[in-house]
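Reopening closed ticket. The problem is back. First fold of the pair:
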Amino acid sequence: MLTIENYLDSHYIHRSNWLRAAVLGANDGIISISSLAIGVAAASASREPIVLATVAGLVAGALSMAAGEYVSVSSQTDTEQADIKREIEELREMPDEELKILAQIYEKRGLKKETAMQVALELTEHDVLAAHVRDELGINEISQANPIQAALASGASFIAGGILPLLVVFFAPVSGMEYWLYTFTIISLVILGIISAKTGGSSIGKAVLRITIWGTIAMVLSALVGYLFGVNL
């Protein structure tokens, strides 16, 4: 039975925060580690330097992604909390002006002036802070991200993505490893694009095209750097 409590369960927007972090982490893990391995492989005649660089990049990248995501989301949360605190002060110091602003917001959304004021009055009586935080500041439960959740999703997905090219580095022939890495990475990116598109309800074609184009650019440039500036190790 469809109710207001389960209405959003079949929608995709409530997945946006963790899905963004997970896709970003996996995509970065695949492309970064593959590009690093390709760059070193282009300048190396043995497997050991490639393995060392790939493992080091995997560990450093996962920690960097997790820390960066945590700091980024925490900063966003701090900004939202500061705005909420400011809104509390404004509601205390000038409630009438805040009521008019709320009514104007509803009026701009299409309500008649009298209806907009009535809606603003009723929502103010119900929960004045929630009404202003949601409709004036645009902060709601769906848009709010959890720093720990985002950090874990980003770091874990980076490792999951980075392990794929690491396996190629371990088992593919050193001669021509760049081509093995590129082929395997493109396949991985296509799969990631399909999964992210299905999970987020977006176009599979656009997701796959977007992720493979940028992945190819990154790997080609990394290989070029390896060929131009590398030395046999």
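Second fold of the pair, where the issue appears:
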Amino acid sequence: MAFVEPVTLRDRGVRLEPLSLEHEAGLAAAAADGELWKIRVTSVPEPQETRSYIETALLGREQGHRFAFTVIDDDSGKVLGTTSYHDIVPAIRRVEIGYTWYAKSTQRTHVNTSAKLLLLAHAFGTLGCHVVGWRTDNFNFASQRAIERLGAKKDGVIRGHALRRDGTIRDTVMYSMRSGEWPEARAQLLYLLEQHAT
């Protein structure tokens, strides 16, 4: 039995369902909304590479180290983007959240906060994780701010850690949240969502 089993999570009009090839057209359209693949510090596929992107994610699920979700508007069924658990380590009950990107028209809405609330609640409440981690490019300042808004703590920077799509070598900023920090972070996320609704 896999540590992360297939599950659909939903709240506040946002649905996370296991990524599949059926989501290819919707995900390609989401990537095209804002030409996200042109952003140097992300891993968004070009629309014609969407199938390969999904196949790579599905291989990660099969191997047990990644579980990707499609982020969907629950009312319309429109694909908004994707997010994943990755670097899954069952022995120490740790997952990371990443490979997250949304159509430009979805950015700066309640969607990311709602999706992260669902993933964190599932990780700490259902999977019994002791820690949830995040990592991002040292130049992806928007991502760093978004992770910090979730209540995650900065662990440090791994220098010369990974290749970007343009061949340059990036430093990786690491964050984490421990299970004991989750109740306060959850209260803050719910507060932010309530403020957004008003």
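Update: turned out to be a display glitch only; the data is intact. The chain has a mean pLDDT of 92. The first helix runs from residue 24 to 32. Please close again.
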